[in-house]
UniProtKB/TrEMBL annotation:
Database matches in Pfam families: HTH_30 (PF13556), PucR (PF07905)
Protein name (Swiss-Prot/TrEMBL): PucR family transcriptional regulator ligand-binding domain-containing protein
Purine catabolism PurC-like domain: residues covered: 14-131
InterPro entries found in the cross-reference section: CdaR-like_regulators (IPR051448), PucR_C-HTH_dom (IPR025736), PucR_C-HTH_sf (IPR042070), PucR_dom (IPR012914)
PucR C-terminal helix-turn-helix domain ranges (all copies): 475-532
Source organism, top-level taxon: Bacteria
Length: 541
């Protein structure tokens, strides 16, 4: 794990202070930019028990004038404690810094400074700590200013991309946010990365949230990043976050502090936005429901409500699609609405929806009718990805009505989609997507009016079965018989009946109807009558 580039007093800067004039860095050149938070003067041989990380330790060497071996051992202890470095005054109590001490310091890359005998430690402490306090106050001023700017943007109700642009300007690096609706916002990266690359970046950052500064890879190039998880209400299956990626300038400690402070305020803002969206979604859900069932009669009402939901329904083609899920995939309507939002982002149109009669209903809105098949393909792919299980057929189907160009005809498209669903289930049409145009002969039967002539025709062909005591059993047997291509054995297996039982039923049906079930013309007319009967039952005839 990497550490932040921190602003503050460093070994390099310490050597430039006037009280340390003439001091030299003997070892640890590569760590001369290590930060110093405090100065400690050695008053006892066991000082390693009283030091803290990022302290700089100074000694006159008096405690070790007769035992420099202990001074060498002290280097290991100070290094293990995270001490930034050590200054040793020479030509006072020890003539030179022992070579074996320097050798060990080089092995550890531990900074050791040779301090001239005339140096006054109290002056070093005073000047160094003034520098430390100045740097820390500068951090606080910078952080305070950034937080104030961010709060001002929140009060002005800026959009999330605008808020992130403000943070990017403060820090000088790109910002990425995954909100509570699992929507990725990355103003700078979205301009240069492909959608698949943004998706991969999101997965990478989600795994890095909360573990400090780490390294990520984008297009085979490594970058440092800092990712802070956002606190959400309730249980969610992903980790929302705000992240900064070091592409332009080094991430500093104050940048880290900025993200930490901003994350808490952003969490509150996103929580409020999510709550508002849920309320809006409730009304949108009702609006779509009224559209598909035809409860809205006023064009003014439609225009007013569509505008409030930022829906453009002018000069559009519409198609109603029913999504039938076995066992259920979306926990509630909110989860379904999030799915629709993703579909809108991926397609060239708008997808809204509602729940109706224990099914999810989608309304596709496009400028050109030719765009609808592509939208259905996108939806099918997305649903398949959600519900697909290892080695199993996806347990879903999409049923579509015909496309219409008038809002008043959306109800008709919905009724057709519902009809498609009923017909498809009855006739075991298993294609993932079944449109009204796929019904073929059922289209003709569906549009036949419920006239006395049609009723007379049905009575003439299947009337005797309707009057029979076991009418339901006979109709079921015929339905399965024709679906199994008139295979008696397969019919018996499907109905879990004995072979001879099915033979008896078929003979009884032939007798009642006065037809030969081996006669192709008679069977064709019987099948049409059965389909017409089912269609009229569906239509309430």
């Amino acid at each position: 794990m990497s550490t932040f580039h921190k602003r503050g007093l460093t070994i390099e800067r310490l050597l430039e202070l006037e009280p340390l004039h003439g001091a030299q860095l003997i070892t640890g050149e590569q760590n001369k930019r290590n930060r110093i938070s405090r100065i400690n003067i050695m008053g006892s041989p066991d000082i390693d028990q009283f030091v803290r990380p990022e302290e700089f330790v100074m000694t006159t060497g008096y405690l070790f004038k007769d035992n420099t071996i202990h001074l060498k051992k002290l280097i290991d202890a100070l290094h293990d404690r995270g001490v930034t470095g050590m200054g040793i005054k020479v030509e006072r109590f020890i003539d030179v810094i022992p070579e074996d001490l320097l050798s060990r310091a080089r092995e550890l890359s531990f900074p050791v400074i040779e301090i001239r005998p005339q140096t006054i430690f109290s002056d070093v402490v005073r000047v160094a700590m003034e520098e430390v306090f100045y740097q820390e106050s500068e951090h606080l001023v910078t952080l305070y200013h950034r937080v104030q700017v961010f709060m001002d943007q929140l009060n002005r109700d800026h959009s999330l991309p605008d808020l992130l642009a403000g943070i990017e300007q403060m820090i000088g690096n790109p910002i990425v946010v995954l909100d509570f609706e699992e929507q990725l916002t990355a103003p700078l990266f979205e301009q240069v990365l492909e959608p698949k690359e943004c998706l991969h970046l999101n997965h990478t950052l989600e795994a890095k949230a909360g573990i400090g500064k780490t390294t990520i890879t984008i297009r085979d190039e490594s970058f440092q990043c800092y990712c802070v998880p956002l606190v959400s209400e309730g249980l969610i299956h992903f980790v929302p976050y705000i992240a900064c990626i070091e592409t332009n300038v080094d991430l500093t400690e104050v940048d880290c502090m900025t993200l930490d402070k901003v994350s808490s305020m952003l969490s509150i803002e996103l929580t409020n936005q999510t709550a508002r969206k849920r309320i809006e979604q409730k009304y949108l859900n009702q609006f779509v429901k009224e559209l598909v069932v035809g409860d809205i009669v006023s064009d003014y009402d439609i225009d007013l409500r569509a505008h409030s939901f930022d829906l453009d329904l002018k000069d559009k083609w519409f198609q109603t699609v029913i999504l039938d899920l076995e066992g259920g995939v979306f926990s509630d309507v909110t989860a379904f609405q999030l799915f629709l939002k993703k579909m809108t982002m991926q397609s060239h149109g708008q997808v809204v929806g509602t729940s109706l009669d224990k099914a999810f209903v989608m309304l596709l809105c496009v400028k050109q009718k030719a765009s609808i098949p592509n939208m259905l393909q996108i939806i099918e792919t997305a649903v398949n990805r959600i519900v697909k299980k290892d080695g199993q057929r996806p347990l879903y189907q999409l049923y579509g009505g015909r496309a219409v160009q008038d809002i008043a005809h959306i109800k008709q498209s919905f009724n057709e989609a519902y009809h498609v669903k009923t017909i498809a289930k009855h006739n075991q049409l298993t294609a993932p997507v079944v449109n009204y145009d796929d019904l073929h002969v059922y289209q003709l039967l569906y549009h036949l009016p419920q006239t006395p002539e049609v009723a007379h025709y049905l009575e003439e062909i299947i009337g005797p079965l309707r009057s029979a005591r076991n009418d339901a059993l006979y109709f079921e047997t015929l339905d399965v018989f024709f679906k199994n291509n008139k295979n008696v054995r397969a019919t018996a297996d499907t109905l879990y009946a004995h072979y001879n039982t099915i033979v008896y039923r078929l003979e009884k049906i032939s007798t009642l109807l006065g037809i030969d079930l081996q006669d192709a013309e008679a069977c064709l007319e019987l099948q049409l009558a059965l389909k017409l009967r089912f269609t009229h039952l569906f239509k309430g005839g």
